[in-house]
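[step 3/7] fold_predict: job queued, chain A
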Amino acid sequence: MRIPAHSVCTAIRDDIVAGIHERGGRLTEEVLARRYGVSRVPVREALRTLEAEGFVVTRRHAGACVAEPSEQEAADLLEMRLLLEPLGAARAAQRRTEAHLKVLRGLVRLGQERARLGNSDDLRALDGWFHETLAQACGSHALTSALTQLRHKIAWMYSVEGPASPPETWAEHGAIVDAVARGDSERARAVTALHTERATAAHRLRTPARDRARHAQHAVNTAGLRN
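[step 4/7] structure written:
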């Protein structure tokens, strides 16, 4: 059975975000096809999609490689999210369905329960599902896609410290859902803007593995000189 290119694309993207394919590393069609158990055709299609998304670049004499965004590009991602997340929530207040509301309310209940128990692993997954559902509720394929790509890229470029007060974070989620349920787009925009601004403060830029190794080597050499 032929595995669709979008499934291969998702697998490669997830591995890039996880750091399995390091920034700047080559992405050879043959190697990727073996890794994911597919032919080279869906791999080729997936790499084209990932290049359009900004995860992959094509270099002369090297072919497809994992992109290496600059610190400025990484900072731009957070600024874009500060603009787009509130817009998505405002649109969701106008266009959400009852099915969206049911899922969002269920996630808030679970999140509040897990926050009381202090289960951080569950909270991270629930937070991702919450924001994914909120993005889907905005009723715009273009905006949903933009928000989804932003989440992937931010997870790739940044590590996130756990919130100082998980119950407060999930209370904010609840306030967003209340505004969306009432169809109050301005309130949804405002509470989401505040929530996103607070969440942004917990992001720390990741250092690529090879940079960490270079710094470690430099520290060893410096220590040797001091001795």
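[step 5/7] annotate
The beta strands are 56-59, 63-66, 158-160, 203-205.
The chain has a mean pLDDT of 90.
exit 0
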